[in-house]
Write a structure and sequence with these properties.
Blueprint lengths: L2 E6 L11 H4 L4 H15 L2 E6 L3 H13 L4 E5 L8 H9 L4 E5 L21 E4 L3 H15 L1
Parallel strand pairs: 1-2, 1-3, 3-4, 4-5
Helix pairs in contact: 2-5, 3-4
Amino acid sequence: MKTVLVLHGINLNMFGKRDPAQYGTNTLDEIDAKMQSLAEELGVELTSFQSNHEGEMCERIHQAFNDNVDAIIINAGAWTHYSYGLRDALAIFTGPVIEVHMSNIHAREQFRHHSVFAAIATGQISGFGVTSYLLGLRAAVAALT
């Protein structure tokens, strides 16, 4: 069975409370439950991880590499725009990396338009709320077949 790791970055534990106009009202637990349901439908094993600590996130990516995880879906939050440490950790990973964002980062503040992950990601999905995650999972599975 293929394995997919979903990484939720900084402040994403506040989904459901943080700026509902941008991020909707679903909590992180609700997003993870929807992802888990789709993973079962698609026949993949899904694990989710959230951290507000960049070093922990890097270590989780390293663990994914060592555990031979097949694909990563990442919403790094604000780290997307400046974390070269996370970029370098993701560059070590050998499977597909799908970057997702709930909001359309290209329609927001100028600093959000740039992703340091874009050049190494298999693809990017943004602007569809929770559906961005679900599309990301579908894209990861498609990249593995």
